[in-house]
Amino acid sequence: MFPTLSALVEDPPAGLAALYIAPIKALLNNQADRLGLYTEMVGLDRFVWHGDTPGNQRRKFLKEPAELLMTTPESLEVMLVSKRVDAASLFVDLRVVVIDEIHALAGSDRGAHLMSVLERLVSLSKHDVQRVGLSATVGNPDAILAWLQGTSSRPGRVIEPPKTMGRRQLLVVHREDLPSLARDAAKLARGQKSLFFCQSRSATEAVAEFMRRLGTDVFVHHSAVSKEERLLAEERFHHGSDTCIVATSTLELGIDVGDLDQVLQAEAPDTVSSFLQRMGRTGRRAGQAANTTFFCETTEAVTQAIALIELAKAGWVESVEVTDRCWPVVIHQLLAMALAADGIPLEEVWTHLSQVPDFRGIHRAEFDRLVAWMLRDRTLLQVSGRLILGPRAERRFGRRNFMELFAVFSSPQSYAVQTAAGQPIGTLNQGFVDRLVDGVSCFLLGGRAWAVDRILHDDRRIMVQPAPRGKQPTWGGVLPQFLGFEVCQKVLEILTSDQSFSYLHETATAVLQDQRANFEGTLEAVRGGVEVDDGEIRWWTFAGGRINSTLRYALQAVGGNWKVIPDNYLIKVRAVGIEERDFRSAVAAISELEFWENEKLWQEVGASLPNYRLSKFQALMPPWVERETLGEYLLDVAGAWRWLGQGQVPGIAS
C-alpha cells in the first residue's frame, strides 16, 4: 500500500483512484485504522464500504469520494447495480486494485465474481488499471498471475520476497475426548494470548464452553456469532494478556489481533495452506518462534497433522485450481448486469463474459443455449432486444431491493438469537431452529449455553435466557469434505515408513505406532493396500476424496449391484458373496483407457450424482449445467485415470 499511496501523492487524483479488496469484512475492519492512519499522514483519505457501513456514510462518500476505497467483491457489485451510484464517474480515475489474501478468492465462485466485476469496473476507467494480488500461501503463483491479469495489457510479474526461516515450535498431542482435549488446552492457554482453531462451528462452541467452565477467559469467533460479539472478542483480545479466542477459519486470513503467544489447533486443518496461515499468526515479535500445538481427538487427525507439517517443511503448498467454466457465476452475472442497466443487449453480455478468465472455456453456442433456457423458464425476458429480469428471478431474488442477488454465495435463512433484554447473541440457521422446542430446548452459541424461551417465526427471532448446561448444535451441511491427493499420499508414506518425528507428544507417538502396526502387512508404500473380509473389500487408495469419489462410480458401473462407499483414504465395496477375483476383474476393467473415454457412461454418472446444493443459482440451472457443476465438485476423472495408470493396484491381504 505504501507505493500505491506514494503514487497518489505524486499525481493527485480527482477522487477515487485505488481499491483495496478483502475476502471478508473482518479483515477490512481490521486494516481500516492502519490504512486510515497512513492515508491521513500523507494528506489522503480512505473509506470502508461493506454490508455494515451506515447509509449516511455511504452517501457522504459518494458526494466526496476518498482516494482509497476498502471493500469486498459483493459491495462492488452493489455499487454497479445501485441507482444511487454514478459508477461511470466514480471509477473514471481508478488506477490500481489491490486484492488481499487472493488465495481465498481464486478458484472459487467468489473469485470468478470478482474478476467479472473488476472487468466491468476497469472498462469505466481511463487507465489500464494495475492489479495486485497478495498471498503468503499459493503453490502456483504464475497461474494466479495469469488469471488476475484478465484484459490488462500490462506485463505481469510474480514477486517473491526472500524467505527468512525463523524458529518453529510444533507439538502434536492425542487426547481421548473433547473434555480432556479442552482441559489440556486451557492449561496451556493460561497466562497466554492464544488462538484456538477448530474445524467446525459445533466444535468451536463445545471447546469454548469446556474451557470457560475451567476458568479460561475465552471468546468465540465464527460467522454465526453476532457482529457485536465478534467485535467485542477482537477488541478485548487485542488489549488482553491472558485470554483465548476459539475460532473457525474466520480468523485465519491475516486479521491482526495484536501480539499473539500461541496457536492451538483442534484436530488438523484440511490443507497445508490453512496450517501455514494459522501458524503464521505467531512468531511476529523479535525472538518469538512461530508455533502450533495440535490437539487431536481422532487417530486420523494425528497422521493428518504429521502430513501437513512434513509437506510444509518440504516447501510444498497447494496450487489453486482456476476453472474456465464457472457456470453459477455466468448465471449470476447475467441477472446482475440485466438489473444494473435496466436491461442489457445479449451481445454486450457475451462480449463482457467472454473476456473473464473464469468463463473463457464456455463456447458461444453453450452460452446461447443457457440464455434460451433462462428465457423459456422466464428467469429472463427479452424486451426490445434487451435482457431483463423475468418473474422467476424477481420472485427468487427481488426481496429487500435484490440484496440477495449481489453475492454469489448464499446466506442461509437464519434466526436472530436475543436475550430478554434485547442483547444480540448470534444467529441459528433454519434447519437447526426447526428442531427447537419452546421452553424445552437448549443450545450453545457464543461459547455459552442458552435455554429457549420462545421462537418468534414471523420476525425470525429466538428469545433465550442463560442455561446451566448446553447441548451441542449440529451445524453445517452434508457436503463431503475432501482432502487433497498430496496430503493423503503423504499420510500413506508416513504409515508405511519407520520415520520418527520429534514434534510428537508421547501420546501421539503411541497412536502412530498403533496405526502402523494395524496396517502392517496390508499397506505398501505408494500403492496402498486391499483387505478382503466376508462380504466386504476395503481398498486403501490414499488418493483423496475426489479421486475416490470418482472410483466409486467407476466400480459401481462395472460391479452391478455393488454398494461402494468412498472417503479420503479408503473405498469400501460391499456385496453378497463378493470375492477377490470379482474385485480384480473390476479394477482391470476400469484400468482400461476406453472405460474413461466412454462419454455415455459418464453422462449417466453425471445424471446419478447426489443433488448437493453447491450454488444459490442451482435452481435456475439447466440440467446439463447442473450435472457439469456437480461433477466438477465431486469428481476428478482425469486424476483417477492418471492414478490408475501408474499401476496403483496392490496385492490382496486377507
Notable traits:
alpha/beta; Rossmann fold; Arc Repressor Mutant, subunit A; 5 domains; 6-stranded parallel β-sheet; 41% helix
How is this structure best described in words?
With 654 residues, the chain is an alpha/beta fold. Helices cover 41% and strands 18% of the residues. The chain folds into five domains: 2-149, Rossmann fold (3-Layer(aba) Sandwich), CATH 3.40.50; 168-313, P-loop containing nucleotide triphosphate hydrolases (Rossmann fold), CATH 3.40.50; 327-405, Arc Repressor Mutant, subunit A (Orthogonal Bundle); 414-466, no CATH class; 521-653, no CATH class. It contains 26 helices and 24 strands. Strand 18 (448-456) and strand 19 form a beta hairpin. Helix 12 (299-313) crosses helix 19 (485-495) and helix 21 crosses helix 22. The chain starts with a helix and ends with a strand.
